[in-house]
Backbone:
């Protein structure tokens, strides 16, 4: 019996969050949300999650990068699969025009750029969860 | 010799050049060595905060890290650079996560910041480290009867850093009295000059500058003394524009405090960048006449 | 976890080290507006903006010129009896509006920040003449001439550089930037 997977989204954009939350819940995932990195990290420490969907541009700036690195350093959170969903190129479009987002600035993560098609989102979530399961066994 | 890690900032190499040369002259006279930080970068002023504050801190942290290598206090003559450095340093000391992340970035430049530097503004280095006694000893030409409006500006005082009075500070007046001048009662001494609004909202900045000029003139000041290149530029370079905008006829010199100190020490005005202004400082040279005459005797 | 995120929470999330939602502590006393030196040029006062944020009037707040007219003088911050860092809030609003690309038309602030930020990333230093490109387009012909005359005066007195400067360790500097903003080739 496959226990319901618990996901957490850390993203400061309530409209975007509403959108992907309903896609994920319809696919029978349990979804929690934190709208800033501080609340997000606290949630990660109080409850066990199976996957994290993480935004980059939040709070003071590219906080998602700092949070992802912090998670990788934490012995308990190190193995948590992280799916980064970012609109960074659009948000600060002028700074590095035309350049791609660096996808592996932390190990073991996937990166998608907003907007994400629901089908692709679910595919990535499911494949990351599967990879994490296989690693455990 | 007191040594400091000196961070001139971008303005001092261009618009604020007189500040830079006069600061070095005054430091030399007072036995202070301002050692320029090697290959420093722009602090970002106020422009980075609307984009990414973490990047803003990183820019300043790079300069702080370089200063730390020397083990000397970090000294900035520009109030905006000073404010950025002070708070970046303070946040790095208080927030371990932030420090860890910024250091991760600095590592790419083989640098590391520990928050052990003390961040100082040039004016308080002279007042607190050298001391008014010693400054008085170097005064060969007290600027007698020179009425000076002591313009602190805003970011040197606000947000609150440590102990100083942000509402009615007096240390600038104390310094001016020490060099023999007459600081006037300048009610708008902590009122903003507009800063970068001179570019992003010209009308607002000119209005703010006009209020400062008006107050100085009302107090019969001969000169407005500044502690920041942005303030100096707004008050001096744009004085013509203020006159065009408001139909006024201001023509009041605006000098850096280091230029006035230099004059009081008997330094040749040309070595203090005097003579390169848009609003002529010629009237002030009358207060430097004594020195020249005495030297010729 | 909140279901519906209030706009004031959104703004607070953008502010440095904010705990909870400081904006809701506002007493609407008006000290900030009374002490703001640029208030006459704002279409809403700082106090009104905070009131509007709390009333979830997101679009109206973003469309106002208030936060882009803030000079960061911190008068409001040091005097607010509810200890709200209002100047920091103005920066948070600036960030919000830049990341979303929504702000009042005709404002120079966003273009200025863009140009400045880019300039430093590309060379490590600022270069005044480049910044002129952000505001000259808004000037009429006679103002441009005046500006040109002023600039000439500055050049002649050696106060305006004609060539941009560059730091020596630029490559590593840019790699440092890319560790904060993960765009482009990794180091």
Residues:
């Amino acid at each position: 019996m496959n226990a319901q997977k618990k996901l957490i989204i850390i993203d400061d954009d309530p409209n975007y969050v509403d959108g992907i939350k309903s896609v994920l819940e319809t696919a029978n995932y349990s979804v929690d949300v934190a709208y800033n990195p501080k609340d997000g990290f606290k949630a990660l420490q109080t409850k066990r999650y199976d996957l994290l969907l993480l935004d980059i541009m939040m709070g003071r700036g590219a906080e998602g990068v700092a949070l992802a690195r912090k998670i990788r350093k934490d012995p308990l959170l190190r193995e948590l699969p992280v799916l980064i969903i970012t609109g960074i190129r659009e948000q600060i479009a002028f700074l590095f025009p035309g350049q791609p987002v660096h996808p592996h600035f932390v190990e073991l993560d996937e990166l998608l750029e907003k907007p994400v098609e629901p089908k692709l989102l679910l595919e990535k979530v499911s494949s990351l969860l599967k990879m994490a399961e296989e690693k455990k066994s | 010799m007191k040594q400091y890690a000196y961070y001139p900032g971008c303005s001092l190499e261009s618009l604020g050049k007189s500040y830079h040369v006069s600061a070095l002259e005054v430091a030399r006279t007072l036995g202070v060595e301002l050692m320029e930080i090697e290959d420093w970068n722009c602090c970002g002023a106020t422009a980075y905060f609307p984009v990414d504050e973490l990047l803003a801190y990183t820019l300043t942290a790079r300069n702080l890290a370089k200063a730390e290598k020397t083990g000397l206090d970090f000294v900035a003559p520009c109030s905006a650079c000073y404010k950025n450095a002070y708070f970046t340093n303070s946040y790095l000391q208080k927030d371990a996560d932030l420090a860890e992340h910024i250091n991760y970035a600095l590592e790419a430049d083989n640098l590391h910041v520990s928050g052990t530097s003390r961040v100082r503004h040039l004016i308080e280095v002279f007042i607190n480290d050298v001391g008014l006694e010693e400054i008085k000893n170097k005064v060969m030409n007290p600027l007698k009867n020179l009425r000076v409006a002591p313009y602190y500006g805003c970011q040197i005082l606000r947000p609150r850093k440590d102990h100083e009075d942000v509402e009615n500070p007096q240390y600038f007046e104390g310094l001016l009295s020490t060099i023999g001048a007459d600081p006037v009662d300048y009610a708008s001494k902590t009122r903003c000059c507009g800063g970068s609004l001179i570019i992003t909202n010209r009308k607002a900045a000119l209005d703010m500058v006009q209020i400062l000029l008006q107050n100085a003139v009302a107090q019969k000041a001969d000169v407005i003394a500044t502690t920041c290149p942005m303030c100096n530029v707004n008050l001096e370079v744009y004085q013509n524009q203020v006159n065009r905008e408001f139909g006024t006829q201001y023509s009041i010199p605006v000098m850096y405090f280091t230029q006035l100190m230099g004059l009081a020490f008997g330094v040749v005005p040309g070595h203090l960048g005097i003579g390169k202004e848009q609003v002529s400082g010629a009237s002030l040279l009358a207060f430097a006449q004594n020195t020249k005459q005495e030297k010729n005797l | 976890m909140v279901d519906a995120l209030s706009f004031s929470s959104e703004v607070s999330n953008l502010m440095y080290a904010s705990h909870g939602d400081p904006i809701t502590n506002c007493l609407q006393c008006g000290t900030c507006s009374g002490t703001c030196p640029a208030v006459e040029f704002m279409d809403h006062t700082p106090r009104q903006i905070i009131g509007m944020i709390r009333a979830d009037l997101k679009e109206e707040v973003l469309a106002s010129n208030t936060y882009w007219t803030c000079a960061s003088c911190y008068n409001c911050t040091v005097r607010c009896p509810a200890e709200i860092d209002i100047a920091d809030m103005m920066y948070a609003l600036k960030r919000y509006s830049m990341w979303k690309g929504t702000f009042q038309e005709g404002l120079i602030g966003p273009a200025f920040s863009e140009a400045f930020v880019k300039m430093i990333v590309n060379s490590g230093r600022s270069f005044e003449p480049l910044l002129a490109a952000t505001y000259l387009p808004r000037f009429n012909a006679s103002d441009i001439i005046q500006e040109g005359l002023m600039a000439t005066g500055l050049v002649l007195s050696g106060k305006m550089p004609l060539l941009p400067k560059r730091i020596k360790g630029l490559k590593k500097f840019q790699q440092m930037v890319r560790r904060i903003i993960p765009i482009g080739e990794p180091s």
The two ends of chain C are 37 Å apart (CA to CA).
